[in-house]
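Researcher: Please translate sequence to structure tokens.
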Amino acid sequence: MDDKVAASHEKYDRLIARAQQASPTITAVAHPCDQTSLEGAVEAARLGLMTPILVGPADRIRQVAAEFHLDISGLEIVETPHSPASAQKAVDLVREGKAAALMKGSLHTDELMGAVVKTDGGLRTARRLSHCFVMDVPGHADPLIITDAAVNIAPALADKVDILQNAIDLAHALGFAEVRVAILAAVEMVNPKMPSTIEAAALCKMAERGQITGAILDGPLALDNAISPEAAAIKHLTSPVAGHANVILAPDLEAGNMLAKSLSFLANADAAGIVLGARVPVILTSRADSILARLASCAVAALVAGSRRADANKAVA
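Model: Translation complete:
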């Protein structure tokens, strides 16, 4: 194995080890009817990251388990006839208090998220839903959170407030000692002709006024100035964030998606995916994900669920 790839796994190994310290999160797995989705749930259960409830056609799930030698003998199966029913039943299990996380199986993302965002019977909160990639990038010392690369296509300024707060809360749940957010644009100067630079400046001022909390923000920043101390120094940018960002806010979904996939396919990075802003964390995985990335996604969800339990206990106390 390439040394850089091996080194990158250390960051996910730390996340998984941290998640294993907490009790497993009961997770409704929607329609795990192929090898990759079922294997991810089974392996996450074996590692103590979750207690899966398998939601889908029981015969198909057992057939996949038998074909690929996956032991599901100790796992609960909730019968549904097809993937739309699996999505809704998984959401219902959360609403009934029987699960504290959701995981996408072999159904389409739109099917699961459609059930999540339903006005009646979904899992919406006052916070806007958004997606975060937790990237394990070779040569980069710490995990890198990129948002939003999968849910909000062209977020407005108000949307970005929620997207940022979701990502900041995630960073705290993952144990980041200091959350340093870079708000990306093509340049590091505010340019009236580039709306992303104006919104970046506005978000920084909103953080100063307490409208966004829990992190240090800087922007607009170009990508090189956000993650490279050398590039930031050449541009004479001095801030705790410039060159040292661990959370990246993309200007729109296309930019975020291209950035995340460039890191994955050109830099051998792994990408754990999670949707935040719903009542519970939603684990979104791709068929192209490695088993390690799938397990890291489960670990991220477990840490988020554990953080929410701790916050709830503090509120009660």
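Researcher: Any highlights?
Model: The domain at 133-273 is CATH 3.40.718.10 (Isopropylmalate Dehydrogenase).
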